[in-house]
Design a protein that fits this description.
By secondary structure, the protein is an alpha+beta fold. Helix content is 27%, strand content 34%.
Length: 320
């Protein structure tokens, strides 16, 4: 028992040190995600506590802030950030100062994100509109225990399919669906993109915005989950309508479980180089670059992350 208590104290201390570092260096999305994770507050509870202090803000907006897809700029948003510091028990202005101009702080200019997540930033209002129409926040009430995703490219270097199997755990009562988000490459034809439920779910409503390439599919579970209950389900998207694909990126709002990504190439279109990368937010520099060897046997590359952190993770490739 004493050993368990000591381990728990050490874990809390390490988490607090991580939070202090994130608040000291930023950027704002990373600091906010870390604070939410360390304090153990889901977004719907944060929204409720803000409302108790006279600040009205949606779960979707909070989620975009911590993803880096949106940045608080308006006076009411900046006031919400200051109240958010109180809710998360943070030092005054520890988050607000990270929103000030970068001059006077360390670090160079942020490099623009790759196309798919630049599209996410540009079309965030459209995604928010679709999610609102479907009546669900980005949070969704679920944590991912494990997610295995397989992407296949075609002979024209186009994205053909992406299939997922997920194990999730509910962190609130009555969750009975998952919203899967798909981004088509430039030139995609949404009317020819199909969604398939492959295990323990069925496809519900599907909404999209053609100009930004975003599609959201509602996957309905066969049961309502109790808080803490796990569930396994599978789904996939058939595309093949867009132009040349150069990467596959996955975003993570919360610290979650294992993620495996495998990309399979067509024999008629093999890349000259593949690499793994990570980002703390959509506009942040890419880090953790690692060259990946293409398997000669099955023409695939893959990555495995045992415990994902909030941010972006993906595989990119060069066609030469």
């Amino acid at each position: 028992m004493a050993q368990s208590s000591s381990q728990s104290h050490a874990q809390r201390s390490a988490a607090e040190r991580e939070l202090e570092q994130a608040l000291a260096t930023g950027p704002f999305p990373l600091a906010l995600r870390t604070a939410l994770s360390v304090r153990g507050l889901p977004l719907h509870r944060v929204k409720h506590r803000l409302a108790q202090r006279g600040v009205t803000i949606g779960v979707t907006s909070l989620s975009y802030w911590q993803q880096g897809a949106r940045r608080p700029q308006r006076p009411e948003s900046l006031r919400a950030v200051r109240v958010l510091e109180e809710v998360l028990d943070l030092p005054a202005r520890s988050l607000a100062r990270l929103l000030e101009p970068a001059s006077g702080r360390c670090g160079g200019p942020e490099r623009p994100a790759a196309r798919s997540y630049r599209t996410l930033k540009e079309s965030s209002s459209e995604l928010e509109r679709i999610l609102a129409a479907l009546g669900s926040p980005v949070d969704g009430g679920l944590h991912t225990v494990a997610h295995h995703e397989r992407v296949r490219l075609g002979p024209r270097r186009e994205l053909l399919t992406r299939n997922s199997q997920q194990v999730v755990r509910a962190h609130r009562e009555g969750v009975d669906r998952y919203l899967a988000i798909h981004y088509g490459d430039a030139g995609w034809a949404r009317e020819h993109v199909a969604v398939h439920a492959t295990e323990n779910c069925r496809v519900g409503r599907v909404r999209w915005h053609a100009g930004s390439g975003v599609m959201v599919a509602e996957l309905l579970f066969e049961t309502r989950l109790r808080s803490g209950e796990t569930f396994v389900f599978g789904y996939g998207f058939e595309d093949g309508t867009g132009g040349t694909s150069t990467e596959h990126v996955r975003g993570f709002t919360l610290a979650d479980g294992q993620y495996m990504l495998q990309v399979r190439f067509d024999d008629a279109a093999l890349p000259v180089r593949c690499h793994r990368f990570a980002q703390t937010s959509a506009g942040a520099p890419r880090t953790g670059r690692q060259e990946l060897a293409l398997s000669r046997l099955n023409r695939t590359v893959h990555l495995v992350e045992q415990r994902v952190r909030p941010g972006l993770l993906g595989i990119g490739w060069n066609w030469g």
